[in-house]
Specification:
By secondary structure, the protein is mainly beta. It is 5% helix and 25% strand.
Length: 192
């Protein structure tokens, strides 16, 4: 066995040894030698090489398993708080599905604070929140991606518009992408 700079790294004097000739990650290549090169130093130095398990020749005819895996989809919900004029203000409450736990959010809550408050609810788990200002309206749109709550997540609920002020205020919660857990198991065939 020679290193990439042709120094002898290892050798075997027997023709019964099977070593791959190339493909070593360190750039080494295997070459056959007519003479043995000593690898051990010292008085009465010996070594013994044993084969623990025979290898299997790579082939596409002995595939152990193959599977097409579905890619899971995180649940994405959108909260749209709008007013016809620039007079939007106040607070609103959110909860998840039928849970009685609620968080109080400001009409202009930052994405980071929105995320922190949502994650304080027991059933939410980890989420990512993005906030945008709508182009032709006054208000905010928050997009919530559920990261640890896999599958179809119950829709967030608000407690009404009573604590919000503005001209023709609307608060709408929609499911942008339904969560999907994807395939939950892999079938393995041809194991012997």
């Amino acid at each position: 066995l020679h290193s990439s700079n042709t120094f002898v790294v290892s050798s075997a004097a027997s023709s019964l040894v099977s070593v791959p000739r190339g493909g070593w990650t360190n750039g080494a290549v295997v070459s056959l030698s007519e003479t043995a090169v000593s690898m051990l130093l010292g008085t009465n130095a010996i070594t013994q090489v044993s084969s623990i398990q025979s290898g299997v020749e790579p082939s596409f005819s002995n595939i152990v398993y193959s599977a097409n895996l579905e890619i899971s989809q995180n649940e994405v919900q959108e909260i749209e708080l709008l007013s016809d004029e620039i007079d939007l203000g106040g607070i609103f409450e959110l909860s998840l599905g039928t849970s009685s736990d609620k968080v109080v959010l400001s009409f202009d809550e930052s994405a980071a604070d929105f995320e922190t408050k949502l994650q304080s609810l027991a059933l939410i788990g980890s989420v990512s929140v993005e906030k945008i200002q709508p182009l032709n309206s006054h208000g905010c749109i928050w997009t919530i991606t559920f990261l640890s709550n896999l599958g179809d997540v119950p829709l967030l609920r608000h407690s009404g518009l009573l604590n919000l002020r503005g001209t023709n205020v609307s608060l709408k919660i929609t499911e942008k992408f339904k969560g999907n857990m994807g395939q939950q198991h892999v079938i393995v065939k041809n194991l012997e």
